[in-house]
Amino acid sequence: MAHAVSALALCSREGADWWRSRVRDLDLEQVLSAFRDREIVPMSDPAATFAHDLLILNARRLRDALI
Questions:
Q1: What would the DSSP string read from start to end of 4-57?
Q2: What is the pLDDT along the chain (67 residues), one digit of tens a residue?
Q3: pTM for the whole structure
Q4: Which one of 13, 15, 56, 59 has the fewest CB atoms closer than 10 angstroms to its CB?
């Protein structure tokens, strides 16, 4: 998150606003549902659960840091 915050500080105001809106509006539902529904065949159930939960956590952390 520190790198994302640092990179955002280097942007123009318009650029920073654009990135904030992209992060705020990011829709992860299609990816999350693939993990939940075990649609990624080579992944074990524990791996899919871990990836699902990690994606949610990191998206939340990124939104909290940038918005």
A1: HHHHHHHS-HHHHHHHHHHHHH---HHHHHHHHTT-STTS-HHHHHHHHHHHHH
A2: 889 999 999 999 999 999 999 999 999 999 999 998 998 889 999 999 999 999 999 999 999 998 8
A3: 0.78
A4: 13
